Amino acid sequence: MTFRWDWLPKLAEGLLLTVEITAVCVAIGIVLGTLLAAGRVYGRRWLRLLCGVYIEFFRGTPLLVQVFIVYFGLPSIGVTLSAFTSAALALGLNTAAYQAEYLRGALQAVGSGQLQAARSVGMPLRQAVWSVVFPQAFRIVLPAWSNELIQMLKYSSIVFTITLYDLMGMGKKLAAKHFTYLEVFLVVALFYLAVVLILTQLLNLLERRTRLPGLGSDVEAPAKYRLWTPLRRPGGRGR
Amino acid sequence: MNPLLRVEDLHKRYGKEKVIRGVSFSLERGETKVVIGPSGTGKSTLLRCINQLTIPDKGRVWLEDVEITHARTNINHVRAQIGFVFQNFNLFTHLTALGNVRIGPIKVKGMKKDEATKLAMEELARVGLADKADAFPAELSGGQQQRVSIARALAMTPKLILFDEPTSALDPELIGEVLQVMIKLAQEGMTMLVVSHEMGFARSVADEIIFMEKGVIVEQCSPKLMFTCPSQPRTAEFLHKITELYGETEK
Amino acid sequence: MQALHDVAQYLPMLLRMSLINIALLGSLIAVGFTVGTLVAVVQVYGRRAASAAAGTYAWMFRSVPSLVMLFLFYYAPPRFGVRVSPFLAATLALGLCSSAYQSQIFRGAIQAISSGQMQAARSLGMGRPRAVISIILPQAFRLAIPGWSNEFSSVVKDTTLAYVVGLNEVVRATKIINDTRYDLTMPALIVTALLFLVMTNAGNLALGGVERRFGIPGLQMPGRTRTTDMGR
What we know:
The structure holds three protein chains of three kinds. By secondary structure, chain A is an all-alpha fold. Chain A is 73% helix and 0% strand. Chain A has helices at residues 7-42, 45-60, 63-76, 83-110, 112-120, 125-155, 167-178, 181-209. In chain A, helix 2 packs across helix 4 (83-110), helix 5 packs antiparallel against helix 6 (125-155) and helix 7 packs antiparallel against helix 8. The radius of gyration of chain A is 20 Å and the shape is flat. The model of chain A is unreliable at 217-236 (pLDDT under 50). By secondary structure, chain B is α/β, with parallel strands linked by helices. Chain B is globular. In chain B, 49% of the residues are buried. In chain C, helix 1 (2-45) packs across helix 8 (185-214), helix 3 crosses helix 4 and helix 6 runs antiparallel to helix 8. Chain C contains eight helices and no strands. Chain C is mainly α. At the A-C interface, helix 2, helix 3, helix 4, helix 6 and helix 7 of A face helix 2, helix 3, helix 4, helix 6 and helix 7 of C.
């Protein structure tokens, strides 16, 4: 087994792209996901339906297919985006659907009492939701959201299929040179493990810092997310 | 003639708290003894030390000639001969009443399914629940569940049955059906060691009552003696309180 | 619509290829289930070292992307003289990744079972292994059904990842269509997406039925059982 030191800077480059893509798609996911969640919980019938269909589609179909739709499908109907944009878009749309579901659960977990109390002092719906419900909901959703972040980090590896040189893509490039797939990808695996470990610790810290006494994380996270506390482990799952 | 059960100088502590501090007694074949005392005095722990669900720190226990506490004893063998009835029944939730009763004979004693089923139905009939054989625990009342758990213990044809506060988790109106079964068993000659608050039961069926407090046996004598003239003041005090609280349940 | 008509021609091919995905699904779930159960049991009942090892295994296979595992399982064996087919590599890689998730689901279920069950089993004279097999696991599996159906949905979609090691499955088919009939790319991809939508929903429905059939009255995971999460 031959390992080469000069892999490290290249892989670091790839890691940087991985982090970039993850950050961008999660950002898209937060914004879009929040809108979708709000639409599902507070919207009128047609809005709820629309958001529901969106969420159903993006959670029920494979991520790879979604990426291909954006990168290969769109050009065939006249819309061509760069690889990076395609990746960020596809991943962003995907994570938005999952985040919407978690946030929806959190919003519902906050309890209608809170909303009613806010409305009864005269707050308009939008303000009530924004200043009373959301702050609580965000703390409740934090574990599931942290989990989602880690999931996206891992699934961002899929972008190498559309010729992006993220950690995965860079690994493939290096490995293909001298057919050292085993060595390179062992290192790549270690890179991912390290990043996940660090990220997990940071997210733990974030959760501790923002904890509100009395506000449990009793969100409807699926059974396996419950194993997410107290020692944070990457829960969640695939797409 | 060897006593069926012999407990010698048992000690057990949880952290800093000494729960059992030197307990010794024995049980002859066919005897029924009831252990009473304030909560937290190690009565349940005592029972669990006998079948080693809890390992005592010190002391020895014998079942006939076999020393249960000996390191080389096959505890599964011993447990198959001692029945245990839990305070919260612990019926296997994924099995019907019949399933619960026959699983012991099948899996532990290697009995054939039809034979075990026949045996199980007999034991269910013995506790008065033959018609509930196909019910799941969640579909049974507390009293019925406890009776099934007694049948489950009986199906193993044990030499001795330990009862850990069998009626404490039951609604008052369901206690009677369980006590009936236990009285019947005692009258049929089953060797029983019961931890309970049910004074009426103790009085009518026990050969001896053991009063435990703070991890030691304060007094043990026949029910008649204990209820009429207990030798220890603490015993009298406790009995007074408990008969006040639980009332005299004459069965 | 010409495009629609043309796509219909490719439909049989797409359907045939998706059978490969389903086959992969079956085999990887078999691997994931057996290994997952083993890991869970070791993690809960094993000795310190074994339990820690099981936990570490589970953590590793959940932290490393499935794609990395796919590459390792496909390209590493040839280095030791063993040729591995894409199907086998995918079965092992995805199967072991799934086993890590499944082990945590089963572990949660096992731990949700009251300790009284084990005590009752032991007090009948059952040895530990026997008690785990006959009393604990049957209940644990039932408790695990909702969480497991989430995992099932994820894994259905993950079969597409086998594309990267060259498996002849449905995404590869869409790529082929993309190469030969560029204009049919979008419809083909949409159809594929819908196929998966059908598969995941069918799976969920089936598992819902299983839960109804085998669920024990009164046996439920604490907290939310039926999740709204359609599965990842």
